[in-house]
Amino acid sequence: MISISSEQFKITAPVKINQLPTVFPLEESSRKIVNHLKKTRKKLGGLQNTLYAHGKYAVLVCFQAMDTGGKDSLIREVFKDFNVRGVVNHSFKSPSAKELRHNYLWRHFVALPERGKYAVFNRTHYENVLITRVHPEYILAENIPGIESVNDINAAFWEKRFEQINQFEKTIADNGTIILKFFLNISKEEQKHRLLRRLDKPNKNWKFSPGDLKERKLWDTYMKCYEDIFNKTSKPHAPWYSIPADDKNTARMLVANILLEEMQKYTDIVEPELPDKLKAQIPDYIKQLEND
Amino acid sequence: MISISSEQFKITAPVKINQLPTVFPLEESSRKIVNHLKKTRKKLGGLQNTLYAHGKYAVLVCFQAMDTGGKDSLIREVFKDFNVRGVVNHSFKSPSAKELRHNYLWRHFVALPERGKYAVFNRTHYENVLITRVHPEYILAENIPGIESVNDINAAFWEKRFEQINQFEKTIADNGTIILKFFLNISKEEQKHRLLRRLDKPNKNWKFSPGDLKERKLWDTYMKCYEDIFNKTSKPHAPWYSIPADDKNTARMLVANILLEEMQKYTDIVEPELPDKLKAQIPDYIKQLEND
Lengths: 292, 292
Hints:
alpha/beta; Rossmann fold; homodimer; 45% helix; globular
């Protein structure tokens, strides 16, 4: 039995990014970790059916990570026992021309899960205080009134954006969306190994983009932005979890474990009952069918 | 080894609905059938990754069935080894007020899969020549010019609708969407058992709606409409498969088997290669990373 608590990974007080571990030492074998993942995701799949039947809450699961952080394969593994009916994945790439004609939160709002369902954001609305903060010139494409040059993008601009994101999350949380945010934390060294693996294996080549190396050079700037994100937006109703992700199996198991632990707290999520009036008629319905 | 061919289930010539089997006799044990399903869906999951990487084709998988036909659980089981990133489920219920302000195909068009992905339609655009045909008064809510009363909804109206649906599918097929349409064929007797099970088990009660019994009375009308659907809209680029569905495991295994067989025909779906220009630079990139 692997026994961990989601509290160990939750960001509840100001953090320094370089103090967040990328490795989580476990005594268990890799096989045991995978077995624990399998059991956990099965239970999660069961809870998801109840969430669907109950039909009042929605769940938003956010994933952020540096390139090669393992988001895609983690999502595949953690949500394996979900009914595809109950979960929608949204991979947010560069905004389209149409999306840029809306405010930056619009495409995320539109993609929110409906009641009874999960949405997985693979990259999230936090890219709006991350990649655009590392590359402020991208903001200009958003055509925000008053933002005519990168000189207009000052500290107050980012403060406002954090406030807007916090308000966005508070609004949806107050209306029944459960929010969980995961940062898959890999070390710069581990990223190097993973990029080299892509380059070394001809059949993995296509995943490589020279842009990956350019962004890697900005590693420290990204880390600074992440630190700000965690310290400004980890809230009780929308917490950040920093997941040591240098080992993929461990990261998958931890995310599944946290999801399960958090969802189990919602003891009011139960299958609905038939209204009493209808219940009283069941014997009649049965008779009707039996004579059919 | 279970050996079946998708051709056995494909509708390629005019059919009589009551000649389509609801039972598919297999000598294999239930355990073997489930094992075959598991192996097949694993392979499907692998192909789906390649479809995603290739990024040119999309796949639309349509499911229709009478109530209790087993669509939901079949979708859960068949797509279990898919990455949620690559498949989106759309359960089409009664159209919303907003949807009714568009033409009937709009909400289906909007839900089509993007290149590299699967969309599963759980109930489909065929409800527009099915439930609305059994209950023509529903058509009036669509506010179609010239359709003022049910008397305006004549044979020509339905012919035109079939033509529109065929054209819709031809257009998307010509532009790279692979279309597969499954009818889960249960007997009226089997539906009776399944409805009774819902009523007998208190924890299944909530799935029951008195409407189910009302629609059951219209069984023969539905069957007549389905027959028309198959005979008018099963095309080489968008075939209907009639799946004997009285046994759930068999139905799941058959659908997975057909999907796999059909997808394997697309031998041009392969992982992309890095452009030659980039490939030539790989040694440089590796050196750059190694010195990092």
